[in-house]
Every structure is written in structure tokens, then in C-alpha cells.
Amino acid sequence: MIAGLMTSYFGTISWATLYLLSEWAIRLAMLVVVPFRRSPEAAKGWLLFFFFLPWPALLVYFLIGRPGYPKWRQERFARLPVVFKAATDRIKEVTAKEQPDLPANLSQAAVLIQNLGRFPSLGGNGADLLSDYDGTIGRIVEDIDRARSHVHLLFYIFADDETGHAVVAALTRAVGRGVTCRVLIDALGSRAWSANVVEALKAGGVSVRLVLPVGLLRRKSARADLRNHRKIAVIDGEVGYVGSQNIVNSDFNPRVTNQELVVRVTGPAVLELQAVFVADWFLETEEVLDSPALFPEPRPGGRIVAQVLPSGPDYPEAGVERLVEALVHGARRRVVITTPYFIPNEALLHALQTAVLRGVEVHLVLSRPVDQVLVNLAQRSYYAELLDAGIEIHLYRDKLLHAKHLSIDHGVSLIGSSNIDMRSFILNSEVSLVLFDRDLNARLREEQERYFAASDRLVRSEWAKRRLSKKIVENIARLMSPLL
Length: 484
Known about the structure:
With 484 residues, the protein is of the alpha/beta class.
């Protein structure tokens, strides 16, 4: 009996020792693996995770640890320049006369955008800023009802609600007139509604695909954390929409009501939005959309110079964060950044702090109502050092300010789907429209002034008075920010 107890005791010790050794083996191995092709901030977050919870961290790492798409998708993306040569040649042909003459301080930004996302800056565009939520959906429906050739929609969320029903009805009417309608919906972003929406769209004759579907038994399943977060509408290759708003009721989240900003653009820049859509369509279906009707001769829309920047894991060198950092470094007078989620990398944080030291007025417009608690806690951990640097923080009071845009001085505006956080910078497929125009910038500044008036301005002395427990929780969340 004693011998049996001793065997059991030493066996227990042996298993405990093996588990302890396995934890240290994981820690040491990941100390080598994690830093490869990762920013110091992201590596730090993962290594802390591995230090405290080695086995759970290893499981999560295998699921979402590498910010890259599956091999099959990478191979499709590599084929894009060949399969879309006819389409890209067509874009070059019909937009050759639209090349703008930008001043030196803006031409460098345009060159950067082209090198990152492959699209040139184009003149002759018109743009309207749309901030009325239901009014924006109404404009999209009106343009769909005027469509003659085709309608292309790509949205992260397409809901089975009043807003979604209005768009589905418009698409169904368009199909009835002989218009070709194609819709891409992110599989995870729309998971609560996708079955009903897809069924309704197919019943109306619309070609629809779920983007990056996830499933353990799927042959070509995508990772749950790599999402297509873009919001694009293109009608007849002549009218385009891009911005922060999804096809869903503004109060779909019972805790908050969304405030958005969308730009409706006409002119040659619409063809660049079209190219982003047809590339995503090919990545999901392998169907090549290169008909000349998709890339018509641009009608003069105005005098705005505009440029589209797609970004995401498909573009290893094309993070929108590079553009944001460069624009902040190039600012001479004023920077205003509006975003619902603000978790900057070190480079952007330093760029903002340095801008103030150079005499630039820097404003952050964030949302007081929140829908992502952990992200908001991490975001709040940056407020003290931002305020110490002289950056003004405005917390929008009444709604979730989901708009995503920035203005630089008096001539550069960026409006799109990208937040200022690691997810948008590294994991999500995003799209941004950059507009080089003083009048458009002035209109965006008017919108920003309305935000200021509806916001509470953070005061450093008041912010410092919050409880120590809150500071601790915020800083713990900050350690996790590279994983958010």
C-alpha cells in the first residue's frame, strides 16, 4: 500500500513537473518566434500573454497569431495584376487626361498613396459629405433606382432590418429593369443577419457572396479576426460612396446610436473604388469582372483631386497607418482626427506629440458612448500623455461617433472605413478616399466644428482625479492593445 502511495505521489510530481517544463518551453520558443515580422508593440503584447498563460496563448496564437490570409487567397491576390490587366489598362486609358498637378507638399503624399495602394491621384472629381444617417441611405437608394448598367455594394454589415430591407428592395427593382447587381457582405460582420439577407437578395435576382466565411469544416475557411471592413457602393461606374456607415439601422446596437460620415463621389475616382470591388469579387469567386461597361469614360464631376487607398493583409506594405503618420508629420497648421477607436502605435503617437512641438494644433474627436468596453479602456490609457503633450481631446456626447476621417491643414482630407487602431492598421481590409481640395476640406472642417460643439473637452487636471483603480484597469487593457 505504501509503495502504491509513493508511486502515485511521485507520478503526480512528475506530471506537474512536465507541465511546468512545457510552459517554459513554450515561453522560450515564442520568445524567438513572436518578434519575427511583428512590430515591437504587437510582440510585447503577445509575449506578455505567453508569459502569464502559455498554453491558452499558444492556442490563440495558432488561431489568430499571424496577420495573413490563407495560402489560397494569397495565390489569388498574386494573380490580380494578370487577370485584371485589361481593366487596369482601361482605367489608365480613360483617366490619362485627369492627372493633376499638385504642389510639392501634396505630391509627395500622392506618390506615397500610389506606392502603397497602386492607384494614382486623379482630378475632375465632385464630392458631397453626407452626415445624416437616414439621408445617406436615401441617397444610395435613389442612385440605385437611377442605375442603368450595374450596382456593386461591399459592406461589413448588411442587416435584415428596415435599412437593409430598403436597399434590398431597391436592388430588386434594379434587377427588374435589367441592371446587374452584385453584393459582397462580410461573413462575420453580418453573421446575425446574413442568412435572411442572402436569401432575400438571391430571391431578388442579386448576385451575392459572403466574404471570408469562417467554419471549422469549411475547405477554404478564413480566420475569424481577418475581416473585410470596407464600405463601398458603386453605381454604373459613375457614382461612388465610401465612408464609415454600414447598411443597418443607426440604433441596431441597443446601447448606442451611431453617427456617421460618408462621401458621395463622382468622376474618375469612382473607377478606383470600382477596381477595389472587382478585386474583392475575384478574391471570393475567381470571376473576372473586366467589361468596359464597368469602367466607363468618366464624366466631369468637379475640380477635386482624389485618390483611393485600399489596405489590409493582402497589401503587406500598404498599411493605412503609414499614410496617417506621413500626413501628421507633413502637417504645418492643424490636424483633426475623428475615430471611434483610438489605439495608436508608437510611431503615430510620437508623430502627434512631435506635431504639437512643431506648433501644429492637434485635435482628437472621440466618442463618449462606447460599444467596445475593452478597447475603450485601452484607449483611455493614452489620454494623460496625449493631454500632457498639448493634444486636445473632444468626447462626443450624445451618440457613438462612428465616423472615421481626418483633415490636415487646409488642403488634405481622408475619409474611409479605417479606425486608428491595430485592427484597422494590420488585420482588416479597409478603404480610404483621400481628397486634395481646400473647399472640400473647409466643408469637413465645418462638420468637425459641429463635433466640437457637441463634445466635452477633456481637461488634464480633471482627468488626473479619476480613481487609481480605473488607472490600473486602463493600463492593463493597454498592455493587451496590440491584440485588440
